[in-house]
# Entry
Amino acid sequence: MMEKEQMYGFEMIHMKDIQDIMKRERCMVVDLRDNESFRKDHFAGAKNFPFFYFEEWKNEIPQNVSLILYCEHGNQSMLAARKLRRRRGKIYTVMGGYRRKEKD
# Structure
C-alpha cells in the first residue's frame, strides 16, 4: 500500500479503518457531502466541508493532522485528496464512500 500512497499522495481505506487510524494518529475526519446529507447522518466527529465549496474551505484545514476524507461514493474524496496532497500530514480517502450505519 505504501507504493500507492507515495504515487498518489494519499491512501485509500475502508470506512471500518477510520477508528483504528484515529486511535494512532491526530486526525480530522472531513465529510465532503452536501449539508443536507451531513445533517441526515454522518461519521461521529466529522466536520462538514462540502466538495462543491472546496476552494473556499481548503485553507481552513490544519496542516499538522492527518485527514480522512469521505463523500457519497468515493469520487469526490479522491478528487479532494489529489488537490490536497501537497499539504503536510497524511491523507486518507474512504473507498466506496460513506455507508449509513446499519441498525442492530
